[in-house]
Amino acid sequence: MIATTRRVLSCAVLAAFALPGIVGSAHGATLDDVRAADELKCGINTGLAGFANTDDAGNWVGFDVDYCKALAAAVLGDASKIQYVSLTGKNRFPALQAGEIEVLARNTTWTFSRDVDLGLTFVGVNYYDGQGFLGPKSLGVSSATELDGASVCIQTGTTTELNLADFFRTHNMAYEPVPIETNSEARAAYEADRCDVYTSDASGLAATKATFDNPDDHMVLPEIISKEPLGPVVRQGDDQWADITRWVLNALISAEELGVTQANVEALAQKDGGSDNPEVQRLLGSEGSMGAMLGLDADWAARAIMAVGNYSEIFERHLGPDTRLGLERGLNALYSAGGILYSPPFR
Amino acid sequence: MAAPSSTRIEQLGYLWTDERLRGIAFQVLAVAGLALFFAFIIWNTAANLKHAGLASGYGFLLDPASFDINQRLIDYTSTSSYGRAFLVGGLNTVLVAALGIAAATFIGFVVGLMRLSTNFLVSRIATVYVELTRNVPLLLQIIFWWVVILALPRVRDSISVADVVFLNNRGIRMPQPIFEDAFQFILALFVAGCIGTFVLARWARKRHDLTGRTFPVGWSAIGLIFGLPALSTLFVGLPVDLDIPLLGRFNFEGGFNVTPELIALWLALSLYTGAFISEVVRSGILAVDKGQIEAARAVGLPPGLRTRKIILPQALRVIIPPLTNQYLNLTKNSSLAVVIGYQDIVSIGETVLNQSGQALEVISIYMAFYLTLSLLTSVLMNWYNKRTALVRER
Hey, is A191 helix, strand or coil? Predict the structure, then answer.
């Protein structure tokens, strides 16, 4: 299955670069493309609890999925007009570069080389993460610096491999990398004791741990060995589309800051009797013309919040303490609440 | 006036009806069309890459790779270059392909002969094996063997052989020989033994052709190649140290480890391709004229010689061309390694692709690598094919 996908992808990559241009793809037309298709093509994970996975009814749900929904609601006015494209760590960038998707919301770390060299634009950070280690408690390891000589399972095609190599090199420790392509197979290898620890982004480890039969037999080691700012990505060269995707994310964060929720957004957005806070009015489109500046309707942000709620609501629904993942806000709390989440002002 | 023009028309008509000229014209057209097509593809790809703001070229191969590889046949660290990482991956592919070809050939010949056996049980077992392995997708077989190996005892409960070889679900850990300087002397003797055997074999064949007398080449070869070096150790001692694996905190340390991924891939490739080869062998043997065997029997050749001197040389002529195909298939199938994380050229290439973003360049390296490997295999097998074909004419 995977191998087939890989081959198909290789062909797709070749074809994608070799064939367009016969028709010629125009710059700055992503918004028009989305409107013409009346559908947003959103790249998500192949399956990671909390971020993008299918529910019992077979619908995609998760933190990243909600971003896709907010974007579709803002642009098309309907959060269900989305074609989800699930992508592995390896094929996500070719898929975006080749125009298979319009936006990538798939636990993707913002790095210099990806931003500069791959022809991509990162539009912001929706989750501040860091790489950690998951190990069985029976291993008796309390710190990652005790892992000299261990076997480490890694999901390939991520920044994880590089951080791991750097970490072990700087600590002058030896290890055996066990690189595996998908989360499910890497998990299987870890559970079969092919490796001592499994490394990934800490949020991903919490998600993986939540799906074990006995989650309490495993622990995430305290060390976070890297900075992993995860965020949505678009193709470089279409500034309007980059602005739209960036400000939809900012709108969700600002909504939390301003106390706009899924429940009260409709009332606050009223022209008469709505919010009297001018920033809320600008955000929700009852005052000013911010929607028009983006090339969208005036109520673009209101629709996004109506569809999925503000940042806090999305977080609590998929990742927070009441979910299987049980993640604290931590760095992802608002700057005013001890975190580093900070949206530029709507003005 | 009319006459020359009608001749010209006739000449034109003649040009068209001449099979040779027409053939040349079509070939020129076809080549030109193909050249135009590729020129367009290359130009268009370059234009699109530029359009997408992507740099192209192979300069990235010199950049540091920054990731680690668990199975290295040559020195490699995370500070080595992408190019070196490709080399490590390429060698891993060659390793599993070579091991697989050797094992698949052995299995193929044994099972092929078993299927022809007159013993009911033996031939049935062979049939069941062939039908079972060649009808199940290779990918599933690879995963099957991987899961089987992962179900072996854990490191702490390793199955130990004489406390030097350890088998667990992280592979087989073996002592690593460390050669001292004096070992070169033994190595030289070994090489000398090989050359001596070659010369001896030529002499023996010539003598046999002239006089009909045979010489026990096989036994002398063993004596020359292995006996001489073994004998010399009596005088110089065995100049080899063993690095014996010891249980560390997580894994065995020291010695060298054969990874579960290599074992699983090797088993799956050998058993799968072995089934196909056994059918090739069976067809080759059945293709030998019955009269040949009867004639051999009539002149009183014993069964062993009959197989070696009469049946096999003729069967090989039929066997080798399809055998080459199987070797090529096995090599290319080894790229399925990526599912279980065996770090072959494709697995490493995909990591490089992901880190560097050079999709087209990486894929072109795959293509060039497999093409080179396949052509080399073909050249070797064709050379061998020619040799066996000559036997028939002599």
Answer: helix
Residue B109 domain-assigned (yes or no): yes
Closest CA–CA distance from residue A178 to any residue of chain B (Å): 7
Q: What is the pLDDT of residues B257-314, one digit of tens each?
A: 899 999 999 999 999 999 999 999 999 999 998 899 899 999 998 888 888 888 888 8
Q: Are B355 and A168 an interchain contact pair (Cβ–Cβ within 8 Å)?
A: no
B354 with A90: Cβ contact below 8 A = yes
Burial degree of B27 (CB within 10 A; 0-12, 13-18, 19+): exposed
Ordered DSSP codes for B121-175: HHHHHHHHHHHHHHTS-HHHHHHHHHHHHHTSPPGGG-EEETTTEEEETTEEEE-
Q: Tell me B178's DSSP state.
A: E
d(Cα A259, Cα A270) in Å, to the nearest integer? 16
> How large a percentage of chain B has pLDDT more than 90?
41
- Whether ipTM exceeds 0.95: no
Q: B142 and chain A: CB distance < 8 Å anywhere? A: no
Distance from CA of B171 to the nearest CA of A (A): 9
Whether A93 has its CB under 8 Å from any CB of chain B: the answer is yes
B353, B297: one domain = yes
Q: What is the rounded CA–CA span in Å between residue A284 and residue A259? A: 12
Alpha helices in chain A (DSSP H): 2-18, 30-37, 63-76, 92-97, 112-117, 160-170, 183-191, 202-210, 239-258, 265-268, 278-284, 290-294, 300-308, 311-318
Residues of A in contact with B359 (CB under 8 A): 13, 17, 94, 97
Nearest chain B residue to A158 by CA distance is B354
| CATH number, position B326 | 1.10.3720.10
Name the residue among A19, A22, A165 with its Cβ closest to that of B67: A165
Q: Which two tokens stand for residue B302?
A: 């014993």
Choose from B67, B77, B145, B170 for mutation: most chain A CBs within 10 A.
B67
Cβ-nearest to A18 among B45, B257, B336:
B45
Dihedral, A256, A258, A260, A265 alpha carbons, nearest 10: -140
Q: Do A194 and B170 touch (CB under 8 A)?
A: yes
- Whether the CB of A155 is below 8 Å from some CB of chain B: the reply is no
Give dist(CA A56, CA A36) in Å, integer: 32
Q: Is residue B377 in a domain?
A: yes
Q: Which two tokens stand for residue A172?
A: 């002058």
Tens-digit pLDDT profile for residues A149-189: 899 998 876 788 889 999 999 999 999 999 887 777 888 88
Put simply, the answer to whether B68 touches A196 (Cβ < 8 Å) is no
In angstroms, rounded to a whole number, what is the distance separating the alpha carbons of residues A235 and A115? 10
Domains and CATH numbers, chain A: 2-128+230-337 (3.40.190.10), 131-226 (3.40.190.10)
Q: Would you call A2 and B338 a contact, using CB atoms and an 8 Å cutoff?
A: yes
Question: What pTM value is reported for the model?
Answer: 0.78
Same domain, B299 and B381: yes
* Residues within 8 A of A (CB atoms), B 16-75 only: 41, 44-45, 47-49, 51-55, 66-70
Among B135, B167, B127, B164, residue whose Cα is nearest residue B151: B167
* Contact flag A3-B139 (C-beta cutoff 8 Å): yes
By the CB < 8 Å criterion, does A115 face chain B?
no
Range of the domain at B7: 2-47
Same domain, B389 and B296: yes
